[in-house]
Amino acid sequence: MGQALPEVRTARPPAVALEEITKTFGSVSALREVSLTVGEGEFVCFLGPSGCGKTTLLRIVAGLERQDAGVVRMAGRDVSRLPPSRRNYGIVFQSYALFPNLTVARNIAYGLAARRRSRAAIDARVDELLALVDLPRHKQRYPAQLSGGEQQRVALARALAPSPALLLLDEPLSALDARVRLALRQEMKALQRRLGITTIMVTHDQEEALTMADRIVVMNHGRVEQIGAPARIYSEPSSLFVARFVGSMNLLSGVAEARPGWARVGAQTLRHRPTPATKPDDAVTLGIRPEEVRVGAGARESDNRLTARVTSVQFQGAFTRLGLQPTGDGGPALECDLAATALADLDVREGAELAVALPPEALRVFVTPRNGA
Amino acid sequence: MSVATVPATGPPVHAARREGVRLDGERALRWALLGLFALWLYVVLVWPMAQVLWRSLLDNDGRFIGLANYVRYFRTPAIAASITNSLTVSLIAMALTVGLAFVYAYALTRTRMPGRGAFRLIATLPLFAPSLVSAIAFVYAFGNNGIVTRQTGVNLGLYGPRGIVLAEVFYCFPHALLILVAALTAADARLYDAAAALGASRLRTFRTVTLPGVKYGLMSACFVVFTLVITDFGVPKVVGGKYSVMATEIYNQVIGQQNFTMGATVSVVLLVPALLACIVDRIVQRRQYALVSAAARPLAPGRAVGTQIVLFGYCALVALAILGIYAVIVASSLVQRWPYNLGFTLRHYTFDSIGGYTALVNSLEVATLTAIVGTVVTFAGAYLVEKTRTPLSGVLAMLSLLPVSVPGMVLGLAYIFAFNAPGSVLNRIYGTLAILVLANLVHYFTVPFLTATTTLKQMDPEFESVSASLGVPFYRTAWRVTIPIALPSIVGISMYFFLNAMVTLSAVVFLVAPGTELAAVAVLLLDDAGESAQATAMSVLIIGLGLLVRVVYWALLRGVTRRTQAWTRATTPPSGGS
After folding, report:
1. Is the confidence at residue B13, as pLDDT, over 60?
2. Beta strands B335-337 and A16-25, pairing class
3. How far apart are CA B330 and CA B324, in angstroms?
């Protein structure tokens, strides 16, 4: 952090600031100089595949793991060397980690009893939290008597009980079944809004990150790939990795043309989003999301038109995914998502030929890293 | 990569100050306790064992003579024979015990024959007696003046390898049985269904499904029995006659000839096979876990009537043999003079030749103390090793596995060297009950340590993380959560310590002193002195007390389970409100 300049003078420091955090386990490098900030009241998701370092980063924030280098600040205060108990956060784990031999009430009161509050005050606080997570009747039950979703809500109440400044969520929904997960996702987000508590959540589920987070930190191999609002991460992935990991994306390898803004894919020359990053003859990868591929009447007014044969039709409920093989040397196979209404207007069967367009404003460009030299 | 915006001026109170401590109080306490545990293991295990190794390189005047003792050992035919003798009886007893126990275990787990519970209970009876008790019983039955010998006129020639093997099989049977029952219970019914669907015959199914499934259990049973026999001292002492094995050789060198260095030399040699068996067993057991997947469906025992009748007959025979041996022990303690005068008497129970009940009271005291202290030390040690991640933890976990492979005689000798050294601060406990407690504790340390470790590993590792985040110190969480959850296993550990401390002989035989005699040692001394009836009387009391304690523990465990494990019974939420 030697060259970091005091650029912005904010009135209040960020709730959490990580500065060049580095961590290795043996010879494995888990985190490499990760820096980021989390604003007060913000909901930030660490998103990435398993082994990308997101959980390690969360545990470093929590003080459960010690970084090899770098600084952890909370509200401007350097907490890098403080034990977990002096960092003022609540944490919820994927496994719930509820104490099985204690009732729900005693689980929630666990951190309160250590703070030397009166019994009446503790009891009132427990009731308040049970109401908050909507489990007022389960006070005297044991964790084993609750469903997975209920257990996770108790774990949340326990973490929130001492009114921490920061809430850490370590894959909190991953152990639940799909329906409960969806419901709890909304509930937790609403609760976080209501309390205005700064929250960091670790997840490998991109949908979870997109729906819940104010900002997403996409991580890979111990590095931050991109930080941004969900919509921006989705529409403007900054790297091939992010493009592949978040949502689905058709990827077409090609070569940059001499004319700026154009690339050659197979026999086709395609116009793409303007970019200063490519030079002629650079190997590039063009990316377009399935729902951005236009077919039928909508394809006629657009640039980058081609003809494709329908190779598969997969009904997926709200939309239908078409597998398309451009005819001639039109390039690699594509996937295209069509809303149910749009599908009705087209006569789509396997084997049929369709007019297809790849709108230039949707074609993102990634410079393919060269191997070797 | 987004570069953080570092505020130039934070809140005035905390600005730029590197707050905090590298070592907070809790962490310091944890490390201090772990260090204490390490020091303890060093003093009671590493250092004494090092003494044995070192002494085997000295002569009796304390001069370093290199490997001369070993050369002498291997060149003296009378002593060297003990190695081959030990290996011979151990291997034969191992094959017999595991073979007999396998069929018995198969009958208990894979059939629905009647009386399985009773058969199982009877088979575990030998666990409650010191090993030499079975040898004494065999002498009473098949010895030169044994009742069977006199009735049938057939003399088995018991004194020597035959007697050792017979008595060891009896003594080791329950140990092998428990392992094999566990292995045979963990079967995957889906494999049997697949074999049946593919048209495999019953013999082929047995060969291709059953045997591979219990392969590791069988190997484990073999290693356990082999180690038990080769390290056992009581049986060959009573029934071995002139047939010398390594364990008795150590005893003869140390007690008979006061030749401590040769005792140490034989000890080191005895350590080799025991250590090897233990290491291989650890490797084998690690594989066993991978064998049964979580998706396995338990196997329902078969109903083939013919097989059941045959196996029932077999189990009945084995059970009768065990009961018969016990009957001989009880009977011989209650008659005037076996087998000449079978009139009833209680006079053997006065123990007039060893001064009454001191030994038994000492034994109870030592067993109780071993149970209490041992449980605390093993559980606390396992907790610290499991929950504190430092390079030291790994070393301590390895060290904790060592005691199970140290023969009791060797540990006893090590304690003589370590605690009877002039000028040592530890000298004070030599000749007290405390050193007996310590020897038992270390001798039986490994199994409870592993039990505690397994129990701790089954708990969510994030309990401590959650507590730390809530500002609750680790010892509070250990007290309120970890220990209550582990209580059934803790009670089990204390029972293991108690029962073993009651029956062990080899670890304490060198360490008892006038005033600190133990019941099992008394059995040996009484038998040695020709007071066999009093020896069996003492055995009956040891067995009786063991069974009584077992029953008390069983009741205790039920109470403990009811009081602390209420949450495990909580399964389906009751309908309606609170």
Report:
1. no
2. unpaired
3. 10
| Region A229-250 average pLDDT | 93
C-alpha–C-alpha distance, residues B521 and B526, integer Å: 9
Instruction: Give me the half-sphere count of Cα atoms (radius 13 Å) on the Cβ side of residue B113.
Output: 26
Residue A163 C-alpha, separation from nearest chain B C-alpha, in angstroms: 10
Whether A99 and B481 lie within 8 Å, measured CB to CB: yes
Q: What is the edge-to-edge ordering of all strands in the sheet holding A43-47? A: A89-93, A166-170, A198-203, A43-47, A215-220, A223-228
Average pLDDT over every residue of A168-179: 91
- Measure in Å the smallest separation between the Cα of A176 and chain B Cα atoms: 17
* Residues of B (484-543) whose Cβ lies below 8 Å from A: 484-485
End-to-end CA distance of chain B: 52
The ipTM of this complex is 0.82
How far the first Cα of chain A sits from its last, in Å, is: 30
Average pLDDT of chain A is: 89
In angstroms, rounded to a whole number, what is the distance separating the alpha carbons of residues A248 and A289?
6
Which one, of B300, B108, B288, lies nearest residue B192 by Cα? B300
CA distance A213 to A169: 12
* pLDDT on residue B295: 59
Edge-to-edge strands of the sheet including A28-38? A28-38, A16-25, A69-74, A77-78
Q: pLDDT tens, B532-573?
A: 899 999 999 999 999 999 999 999 888 887 877 777 665 544
Nearest CB to B472: which of A91, A97, A114?
A114
The reply to whether B470 touches chain A by the CB within 8 Å rule is yes
Write b or e for each residue in A92-123: b if 16 or more Cβ atoms lie within 10 A of its Cβ, otherwise e.
Answer: bbbbbbbbbbbbbbbbbbbbbebeeeeeeebe
B389 touches chain A (CB under 8 A): no
Token pair recorded at residue B569: 């019974």
Tokens 């094999």: give the residue.
B180
Asked if pLDDT for residue B12 goes beyond 70, the answer is no
Is the CB of residue B15 less than 8 Å away from at least one CB of chain A? yes
Residues of chain B with C-beta less than 8 angstroms from the C-beta of A139: 578
Question: In B, residues 449-468, which contact A (CB 8 Å cutoff)?
Answer: 460, 462-463, 465-468
List residues bridging with A25 in a β-sheet. A28
> Which residue's entry shows tokens 């484990």?
B220
Q: Which two tokens stand for residue A37?
A: 């900030």
Whether a cis peptide bond, with omega within 30° of 0, leads into A49 is no
Q: What are B110-119's pLDDT values in tens digits?
A: 888 899 999 9
Residues A208-233 pLDDT 10s: 999 999 999 999 999 999 999 999 99
Whether residue A97 lies within 8 A of chain B, CB to CB, comes out as: yes
CA distance to partner chain A, nearest, from residue B26 (Å): 9
Decide: helix, strand or coil at residue B578: coil
Half-sphere exposure of B191 (CA within 13 A, CB side): 21
| pLDDT tens-digit series, residues B359-373 | 999 999 999 999 999
Residue A155 has pLDDT above 50, yes or no: yes
Tokens for B102, please give them: 């396998």
C-alpha to C-alpha distance for B432 and B439, rounded to whole angstroms: 12
Within its chain, how far is the Cα of A258 from the centroid? 36
B2 and A111 within 8 Å at the Cβ level: the answer is no
Reported pTM = 0.85
